[in-house]
């Protein structure tokens, strides 16, 4: 009996100890982690902030690199490889000519220039081996090697034409002041191989000149209505292709991403009307434009009327001034002026 009682107490004590241990364990598990001191919190915040700072510093460095690239990459400089997304050369362009023609044509005016033909003038070029060569004016000044895709200089040529004419091209290809549109198909063929820069030369009726350069000038094919794309602007005429300085102007007049329109093929964003009809020409219209170099040739400079349909570059001379001279010309950004030696341009 006594032995049994002692055993019972011992058992009771062990059970109590076990419970106590379990309780202690539970308490230690459930109690909150030791509270961080203000100093620890501060240190932790500091580490997080330093990590964010590092990220921002990296970003800043990247932006500085990009800015340096943009500033250093003028139109006759060498294109940086870091940020240029070169498009691959289309296989059909590499096909050999099937015509049996022994005359080898240069692909563009840069190639003409590089083959030591450095006089301004009309040359027959052939951007695609599977298509016929065609005449174009090569501007061998201004660093040389420019293929001119559009020119206005005297108002003699009619630019109020339909889709088919703008597709094939029209105008005179003889005199140094002849006006023409090279044709959307030819322009597409010239642009499709590689990234090109576009330079726009402008002159008003007082003989004052301005220019605008756009990097990575592209148009899509006819299925996509020769849709326009362009990159960074530089120059002293203002970025009229982008529509103007404020958001509202850009919304209605930025030509970036716009398809080509003619009076018989309205692809503009002006739902209530036809920009090409109002402007009497083919162009990449939005609602409608802040720049239209194919517009009506008003020999007075300033003009009035229902529509701002002159030869317009609004960021320089406004919408109601029609320019005397315009030329749109293209060249590879990597084109190196091998002719003049000193790299200066007029
Ligand atoms: Ca429309």
Automatic annotation (TrEMBL):
CDD domains: FReD. InterPro entries: FIB_ANG-like, Fibrinogen-like_C, Fibrinogen_a/b/g_C_1, Fibrinogen_a/b/g_C_dom, Fibrinogen_CS. Residues 1-32 form the signal peptide. This is Fibrinogen C-terminal domain-containing protein. One of its GO terms (biological process) is fibrinolysis. GO terms for molecular function: extracellular matrix structural constituent; protein-macromolecule adaptor activity. It is found in: Secreted. It holds the Pfam family Fibrinogen_C. Gene3D superfamilies: Gamma Fibrinogen, chain A, domain 1, Gamma-fibrinogen Carboxyl Terminal Fragment, domain 2. SMART domains: FBG. NCBIfam families: GGGWT_bact.
